[in-house]
TrEMBL record:
<feature type="signal peptide">
    <location>
        <begin position="1"/>
        <end position="20"/>
    </location>
</feature>
<protein>
    <recommendedName>
        <fullName>Hydrophobic surface binding protein</fullName>
    </recommendedName>
</protein>
<dbReference type="GO" id="GO:0005576">
    <property type="term" value="C:extracellular region"/>
</dbReference>
<dbReference type="InterPro" id="IPR021054">
    <property type="entry name" value="Cell_wall_mannoprotein_1"/>
</dbReference>
<dbReference type="Pfam" id="PF12296">
    <property type="entry name" value="HsbA"/>
</dbReference>
<keyword id="KW-0732">Signal</keyword>
Length: 184
């Protein structure tokens, strides 16, 4: 009869489940993730434009807006996790991601600007606290994404990525300030 100690069984269980190595992600996956963020941001922009065109938020607009924000959050979280599971990038791979990231970042800046431009509609609906919370959540997710990206970008491209991140961060700060965040 073979006897296994409890320690041996626990160690075997930890090896088989708890210490699983995450799957490494490649540039094409992260490229796709960034494109998905772009699609989610375009959807958010469409919802904001619709609310602006209607001149009112309403229950449907509030629901659509929250769904669109959640879509951006989810896409950003997936991209962040994939970046964390990506090996440091070569200059060529980093250039590829930067080419995909630049228009997405500009869409984020434009969308946040559109949100600020429609603030009066949200004011009349009493929606500022909900908008502020959504902005804070998106800013946090974006910050996590930026940190994960900076961790894999080659040092010689940090300045380029920092410039892109700076534009997005400035747009978030302006939007947060407009919707009453005293920390910005």
């Amino acid at each position: 009869m073979v006897h296994f100690s409890t320690t041996t069984l626990v160690f075997a269980a930890l090896i088989s489940t708890g210490f699983a190595i995450p799957t490494r992600r490649d540039v094409s996956q992260v490229d796709n993730d960034i494109s998905n963020i772009g699609l989610a941001v375009e959807n958010l922009n469409t919802v904001i434009a619709s609310i602006a065109a209607n001149g009112t938020v309403g229950a449907a607009g509030s629901s659509d807006l929250r769904s669109a924000v959640i879509g951006v959050e989810n896409a950003t979280t997936v991209a962040t996790n994939d970046l964390k599971n990506t090996s440091p990038l070569s200059d060529a791979d980093a250039d590829t991601l930067i080419q995909v990231l630049q228009p997405v970042a500009q869409d984020v800046v434009d969308t946040l600007g559109e949100l600020v431009n429609t603030k009066n509609v949200f004011d009349s609906a009493g929606g500022d606290p909900a908008i502020l919370l959504g902005l804070q959540e998106l800013q946090s997710d974006t910050s996590d994404f930026q940190a994960a990206l900076n961790a894999v970008i080659p040092a010689d491209l940090n300045q380029t990525v920092d410039g892109i991140n700076g534009q997005v961060n400035n747009a978030f700060e302006s939007a947060l300030e407009a919707f009453g965040d005293e920390n910005n």
